Amino acid sequence: MLVGFNVSISDMGSDVLATIFETKPTIFYRRLFLIGTLCVVLPLCLLRRVELISLASSVAVLIYLIFLMHLVFVCGLPKLFAGNPLKHVRWWRIDGLVHCLPVIASSLCCQVQVHVIYNSLQEQTHGNMRKALTYAVSFVISAYALAGLFGYLAFIEGEEGGESSALAGNMLTMYPENFVSALVRIGFLYTVTASFPLMLFPLRSALNSLLFEEPPHLCSDLTQIAGDLGPINSVKEVPVRRFRLMTLLVILLSIVVSQCTDKVEVILSYTGSLAGAIICYILPACVYLPTVSISSPNRLLAVLLLVYGLTVFVTPLFTFVGVDSPLDAAPVDQLRQEFAAPGGLHPGVPDPAVPHRLLQIQRPVSNHPSASRNVSYLHRVLQ
């Protein structure tokens, strides 16, 4: 997840710098803004108590609310009332499910925050924790539903023949290049950077337990175990030097890995399929199956859980190998339809209308990061 945060910071930061200086986003802008942002957020990452960043999290929630109101009342509803965008909406597409399933599975990795939030409660009871989780999950579901629906209606564009144009994986790249869009990206930058320190708390604790703490010795006397280890919910303090070294090492490693791709959906997909599927489905099923008898009715449920986890685990292979990106394939498919149409163009015959048509195809994909690659590929197809 930290790698996905770095990719998001690079994308939105380079777009903001390009808007301010009226230039195109470059790899230099991406790396410069990423390093600068992480240097600013580093003091927050070195805090040893999660309660100290609660104010930053509250501001991030407020920014999300402002973004949703702008998306719904400024971008979505005016277009819904002005025209009829619903005729271009595709309510079901099987290849879209293949693309989205690993990203949805990435939400399974958020359970690592449960113990951090529980330890920060003033009254550590199951009722208070259940109430906090209910409010948080309800807000997230509502925010994602509104952003997905009205974002689709706001940026969907109809094409000839009634087909809808392809949408980018990152909705922020489809915003027009103006001052309001820059403010929206800056707000999202703040929300991502505010979430960065929160993700480090469970990661540091897990690394410290894995590398430096010895497992407790097996003992038949439960009172002796309780007397030696103390309360179950007690957390041992990490030494200051080790705490800082682990923080710097994790941030540096996440920066290096984030340079492998510029698509945040790729990071979320692999994170959800690998970490989410293994932790939440595959490992629990593998641990439970050897302990249950063959005749037990729960064994079938464990097998189904294992099969579902393996399905989520291998989905990215079909997503990025067997399925083409709709945005990348749309211009080529459009040209093929023109070639096959009666009286259409022939690949071997030059036509003066081709350059003008190419400009029309360039325009809807010019804001996408892979637009230059699409255009160069179109030139090769037309030759």
From TrEMBL:
GO MF annotation list: L-amino acid transmembrane transporter activity
Pfam families, sorted: Aa_trans
Membrane protein topology class: Multi-pass membrane protein
Annotated transmembrane regions: 27-47, 59-81, 133-155, 179-201, 267-289, 301-323
Signal peptide range: none
This protein's record includes keyword Transmembrane helix: yes
Protein name: Amino acid transporter transmembrane domain-containing protein
Species name: Schistocephalus solidus (Tapeworm)
